[in-house]
Amino acid sequence: MVLARARDNKRIARWWVHVGLIATTAVSMVFEPMVLAIHIGVGLGFAVLVVVHLYQRRRVSNRLIRQLVRVRGLNQPGGRLAAADALLAALTIGMLVSGFWDWSIGHPTRVRWHALTGFALLAFLITHTLNRRQRLKFSQVRRDPSRR
């Protein structure tokens, strides 16, 4: 009974992180042209939720990193997923770094790296979410076998 409740709480927490990631993306995009402070705060919230999301799926992330290191495995479904997750991580980091850079100099750079990475990240996140929409309903955190 207690284990089932704990499992349900983890599943609900993971679901809320997914909802938070989607919501912060949408809110950040809506408020960017109007209120920069909200855009920055929500963007930082998104970055925190990404870290929580990666922590929740650390077993999968570790397996995907190992798959990514083996270059010949990239033509397999797990390898493509590893490459997609690496691209998603790179876009997220690029978005965060370019946002801090624009903020530190007080204006957007001439090339508008933050805007470009933002739209690339948005397109990738939409694709990522739509490809996983069925799994999002029943997403759960699996117990780590090494923590017995």
What does this structure look like?
By secondary structure, the protein is mostly helical. It has one domain. The protein contains 6 helices and no strands. Helix 1 packs antiparallel against helix 2, helix 3 crosses helix 4 and helix 4 packs antiparallel against helix 5. It starts with a helix and ends in an 11-residue tail after the last helix.
Task: Kindly list the characteristics that best describe this protein.
148 residues, mainly alpha, 0% strand, disordered C terminus
Brief synopsis:
The protein is mostly helical and 148 residues long.
Sheet/helix structural class: mainly alpha
Mean pLDDT, rounded to whole units?
Answer: 77
Helical run tally: 6
Distance between the termini: 18 Å
Shape: globular
> Approximately how much helix is present in the residues?
over 70%
How large is the radius of gyration? 17 Å
| Major sheet | none
How many β-strand stretches?
A: 0
Strand content: under 5%
Low-confidence stretches: 144-148
Integer tally of domains: 1
Helix and strand pattern: HHHHHH
